[in-house]
Design brief:
Elements (H helix, E strand, L loop, with lengths): L8 H22 L5 H7 L9 H18 L4
């Protein structure tokens, strides 16, 4: 989901599925019978740049610690 993507989760899901199916069709047109399931199973989406995920983990841990110290968690 990018800045110019659909405004709703449903729209983004549909767009994602259409792009996936288009890729499968394209691969099959180039090489009929290509093993697509292996490509899909190995695909890992990483929307965050390196370091961002670590920063999010640190924020979550600090928040958890903050609320635990106050007995709210």
């Amino acid at each position: 989901m990018g800045g110019t993507g659909p405004a709703t989760i449903a729209g983004s899901t549909i767009t994602n599925n259409v792009e996936l199916i288009a890729g499968i069709v394209f691969a099959q047109l180039i090489k009929p019978g290509a093993a697509i399931e292996e490509l899909i199973a190995k695909h890992e989406s990483k929307p965050l740049t390196p370091g961002q995920d670590r920063g999010i983990d640190e924020i979550i841990e600090e928040t958890r610690s903050h609320y635990q110290q106050r007995g709210l968690l």
